[in-house]
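#help-structures
NK: newbie question, is this the right format to request a structure? protein is Aspartate-semialdehyde dehydrogenase
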Amino acid sequence: MKKRVAILGATGIVGQRFVHFLSDHPWFDLELVMASERSAGKVYAEAVTWVLEKPMPKRAYELTLYPINVDLIARERIDIVFTALPPDAAKELEPQLAKKGIVVVSNASPMRLEPDIPLLNPEVNADHIDAIEVQRRNRGWSGAILKVPNCTTAIATLSLKPLLDAFGIGKVVIATMQALSGAGLTGVPSMLILDNLIPYIEGEEEKVESESRKILGEFNGSVIEVNNAISVTASCHRVMVLEGHTEAIFVELKAEATIDEVIKAMEEFKGNKIKGMGLPTAPEKPIIVRREADRPQPRLDRLEGNGMSVVVGRLREDKTLNGVKYVVLGHNTIRGAAGTGVLIAELLVKKGYV
């Protein structure tokens, strides 16, 4: 039997991605879509400014948008709620849902760093999902809250995981070139970004630096331990690209490795934490390595693996850090948001948490 799911914040870019992934999903039935009061009562096709590269799913056209209502979600026997809410709304509503026995997969930043809240990039740290049991004991609720990482963090940590496993890593330096869609439909006025680059994204660098160390940490049965052996520093920049975050990453390796060995580690990485589970949204190749000197590029590479793969290129030795440097590209609203959220939900089902 399919699980009943709902989307909160269904009209924004990430909400639209959730609608696209869930409308014809083999494991989930999309039962409720919710948004702000100004959209409530309208059918989805009338209320939304659809901006995705694929057509709106027919299943979504006639869905009625409801105002966000925790009691209605509970009455409709929803198993999983996907949230694409602003931080303040998420901070208030998500614990209410968990107290009602509902499992929440959240794209919002509040609670990401709390030690009993799984912050999941499934190919990297699927085992952290078992912190749900600790969370339920600690907080006295029968539901759960699981967090999707910041978009930049999700892309970076997927590329770093095989290096951590094969060679160990120490210092990590990240410089990003982030797409406009990461700021939402109305996030960056056109007059500010045309013929321009904005060298600051509020809160982004702190998220990348702190979340990466949690994702690359370990669940010890009681808490999720941050990986204090790794230090991460980031500089984040908004560029005039529609979708697809590009990151230049410089990594100190604890063990010596040739570029061929690094490529081998990345190409052979299959996301062993979820390998063989048959999760529908999981890409066949989480990491794709390109040999061309001018790849990856957002326009050419962002939809690899249906947007769930990251694409690595320009792998070179880094003598300053005694390691490697490379460029990685990932789709910020798929791998960095809704796609990973759906993959988390599939993992929840497979592990029997819903």
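mod (FA): yep, format's fine, and the tokens are attached above. The chain has a mean pLDDT of 97.
NK: thank you!
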